[in-house]
Amino acid sequence: MRHEILPPAGSATRPVTRYERGRAAQDDDRLAEEVPVAVHINGKPFAVMMASPVDLEDFARGFALTENRVSDARDIESIEVQEVLEGITIDVRTREAVTAAAPTTVPADAEHAGALGEREMVGRSGCGICGTRELEDVIRRPRPVAAGCNVAPDAIERALESLRAEQPINAFTGSVHAAAWARADGSLMVVREDVGRHNALDKLIGAMTRRGIDPREGFALITSRASYEMVTKAAVAGMTVLVAISAPTALAVALAEECGLTLVGFARPGRFNVYSRPERIHNPGP
């Protein structure tokens, strides 16, 4: 007897015509959902991101923090998620005192554009800077991170081995990214998935701030390359170790070294590369 596998939230099935050796067959395929998510800050439009429609409150919380809409996640008073015909809207309400947490560079066309730092373009699922108008707003230099904890090589391997089982959308579709938080011993605490690697990390950061997880007591693991945006978001959130299964960029390494973040790339079972601040990665003493 065949048991139907229900798609997890954030995924769907669609009919497909498969060709193999010149023969066509009708089947159903498993796909990741991707919807436009409009982020408003205190009722004012800020950005539209293409994202997986799951864990959106966590996404909004992390996105507001890493995009400098708030200086502290505790400054967020409420988050309202609403489905509309065109997609999903999220309104992040902050304390009045922190509404000016945007970058200090004022675009030349600020009067025409509207609010300071407001984006005008859709952020695609693989894009981290769409809609940013000034170079100063693109390359942000985060403050130095704290000392953090030490991480043993086998802890990274333990986290890698555990992550596959904690990705239900990717297991169903094979097409989304994940960002995970692991304790220093490699045991996973939180995992978030999204079609966009930046969104997945923002969701993780949002979940961590909501749960009160100390970003100095563990490391983040991402199933993507380590671009400079990922390093910046991790550092802004207070993380001290970022592990990626793919390559870093040269700019990501430079920014990680500058702010004191330990950046690990090409993490695979039994091997990885440390590109900055390697002193945090070592086996514990006897």
> Which CATH first-tier class of the largest domain would you pick?
Alpha Beta
The H/E string reads EEEEHEEHEHHHEEHEHEHEE
How is the main sheet built?
A: 6 strands, mixed
Q: How would you write the strand order of the largest sheet?
A: 9-8-10-11-12-13
Q: Total number of helical segments?
A: 8
Helix content: 10-25%
CATH architecture of the largest domain: 3-Layer(aba) Sandwich
- What is the number of beta strands? 13
CATH-assigned fold name of the largest domain: Cytidine Deaminase, domain 2
What is the typical, i.e. mean, pLDDT? 86
Terminal Cα span: 55 Å
Inertia-based shape: globular
Can you characterise this structure?
- By secondary structure, the protein is of the alpha/beta class.
- The chain folds into 2 domains: 35-138, Ubiquitin-like (UB roll) (Roll), CATH 3.10.20; 153-280, Cytidine Deaminase, domain 2 (3-Layer(aba) Sandwich), CATH 3.40.140.10.
- The protein is 24% helix and 31% strand.
- It is built from 8 helices and 13 strands.
- The strands form 3 sheets. A 6-stranded mixed beta sheet has the order 9-8-10-11-12-13, sandwiched between helices. A 5-stranded mixed beta sheet has the order 5-6-3-4-7, covered by helices on one side.
- The radius of gyration is 20 Å and the shape is globular.
- The model is unreliable at 99-118 and 132-136 (pLDDT under 50).
What's the short version?
With 286 residues, the chain is α/β, with parallel strands linked by helices. The chain is built from 8 helices and 13 strands. The strands form 3 sheets. Strands 9-8-10-11-12-13 form a 6-stranded mixed beta sheet, with helices on both faces.
